[in-house]
Amino acid sequence: LLDVATPTDVAEFGVVLRLESFDGVVVGPALPIGAVLAPWVRGHLPRECPLAVGPIGVVCGSASPIAARQLEQLRSECPQIEVIAVPPASDGAPLHPSFARDVAAAAAVRRPSWGATVIVGGETAAAVLGDAPRRVCGQVSLLSMPWSTDLDGGDLVVTKAGAFGGADSLVQAVRALGG
After folding, report:
1. Cβ(62)–Cβ(127) under 8 Å?
2. Which pLDDT belongs to residue 142?
3. Which of 18, 23, 61, 98 could disulfide-link 103, Cβ–Cβ 3.0 to 4.6 Å?
């Protein structure tokens, strides 16, 4: 059982396990698991997230207090970013699933003009993206936010769990896309 503290340590840990012919089970977030598996997957290593060609939009169907803080910081630091979001839950109660559909419907009108979309919340991602296959290409920085494209390499999307990350996570994701 090991606790790896920094992103650099995670990458080094993955290389060491490969060199030592590690035979075991790795559990945890996607980042350490990816670091362990990356040396075995030649030619399919995660790529850096490309810069958006055009405006960036954020679609948030999460009403978690964490998502609300992230949206507040995003609006403060990156006012040029268009945001489509549900209002934060006042009592912490979960939102009705129809909220994700409503946000997705609003996003469907705006997304064609965006060069990239950041989607916050799993139900929201499902509602916005539908069931069309996507190619997961890597993650934004070391934030454990996957980025993907459609199978033709277009429609750049970053997804993030609603109740995940620090207050600056959305700002970091948008900046990684060039915003």
Report:
1. no
2. 59
3. 61
